[in-house]
Amino acid sequence: MTTMAAQKTERQYYIDWLRIILIISVFLFHIGMIFNTWQWHIKNDRLYGGFLTGIMSFLHLWRMPLLFMLAGAGTFFALGKRTPFQYISERFKRLVVPLIAGIFILVPVQVYIEKINQYDSLLAFYPHMFDGIYPVGNFSWHHLWFITYLFLISLFITPFLNLTRSKSFRNFITHTENIVTKPLAQNLVIIPLLLSQILLRPYFETGTNDLVNDWASITYYIIFFISGFILLQSVRISGAIRKYRFLYLAEATAAYLIMLNVADFVRSEAVAESLREAISIIIAWASALTALGFARQYLNRDSLFRKLANEAIYPFYLLHQPAIVVTGYFATQLGIGVIWKVIIVLIASSVITISIYWFIIRPFNFFRIIFGMKKLSRTDKTGIARRMPETEKAGNEIQLSA
What we know:
Residues about 380-390 have low confidence and may be disordered. The longest helix has 30 residues, at about 50-80. The chain has helices at about 1-10, 15-35, 50-80, 85-105, 105-115, 120-125, 145-155, 165-180, 190-200, 215-230, 235-245, 245-260, 270-300, 305-330, 340-360, 365-370. Helix 12 runs antiparallel to helix 13 (about 270-300). By secondary structure, it is mainly alpha-helical.
């Protein structure tokens, strides 16, 4: 299949750019959590709903599903000729090792800050980090749930990897291309998304991020992941997403407006809530395709910043939340206006995160490994790689792929 071969050997820069933008949006989202009305680890003394909560609610519907979709695409481009054993071994190094390191190095900082009045110091907290499960207890993986779920998906897809190299799978992709390259035809994926939630949400609360009781969300993310794996490998399909991006934008906009006003159409609050949940799935899918379409049109290009950011974005994700929690804790104690608090948290957490990455993680192989990066191949005196990493040679072996 020429389209598959061409796209697999030619790096799809828009996938990198979109992933970078999404992780930055997660960073800004978590800063917003300090000041909006939702429960979080630390809160400002004055909280804001309205526009802030509306924007964050909209982003919350589709940014994480799209990250899983990009991870699915990245997995396809990363596979190459790897055997299932080689694939899962590599996933263990890139996902489980940073997860374990993060649980012991990063998460305790956040839990300690949240419960700072109960312990004399961070060192005093460490002997108690296994005292029960968060939030009642102390043990948690906090924002690292995303890494945990990616590894779970890796285990799920590994037995099927050899099948994806078969002639039957290539024929399946060809037939899929003929169907989903028509206007709005990729909305067919909404059907399994809706069915998964109709079947599972009555039994599992969504968004717990605890793995054990989160199977409605996990199934939802798996479908987005598989969609990225199947759809984004094809030049024809990604081209159709680009071509019809305005249609998907109109669909997402219309669905969001309907969701905001659904109570005006039905009298029962229970029915209204069910409709909102169904419409939120449409919004998530249409918004993901919209973002992909515009990124494919305008961001499919290379730059030095993309190369630097693409390597840095995984450690940035791991580091950003404890940096926000620490700086946010001190900023919220200041008797200054909320805008200044936002600016302080934004600048201070950015400087801390980037500095730790640049001066501690990036130059040294030990820290690169525990933060999910590849070893430096050849280095100059500063420890900066002289030649392009293997991930830049072809395809999109992205750091957060599953």
